[in-house]
Design a protein that fits this description.
Layout (H helix, E strand, L loop, with lengths): L5 H9 L3 H23 L2 H14 L16
Helix pairs in contact: 1-2, 2-3
């Protein structure tokens, strides 16, 4: 799964494929946490914001458009 594109992984996530979601989480948690920590300067708050952000980026009923490149 490590060589799959984000778009391919999101297609699997939309089908409730948990390993695909875990791969995306692993790819982006450090980046999201880094931004959150710089914004809050509080480790606990940064962890919570990172978790909430990545949870909000999960599958939506409308689906995922990899060409849109939108941030959640």
């Amino acid at each position: 799964m490590q060589k799959m594109s984000d778009a391919d992984l999101m297609r699997l996530v939309m089908q409730k494929h948990r390993p695909a979601l875990e791969e995306l989480y692993d790819r982006y948690i450090k980046l999201v946490y880094s931004f959150a920590l710089k914004s809050t300067i509080d480790e606990q708050q940064a962890r919570e914001l990172s978790r909430r952000y990545l949870s909000a980026c999960g599958p939506q009923k409308k689906g995922y458009d990899g060409e849109q490149r939108a941030v959640c």
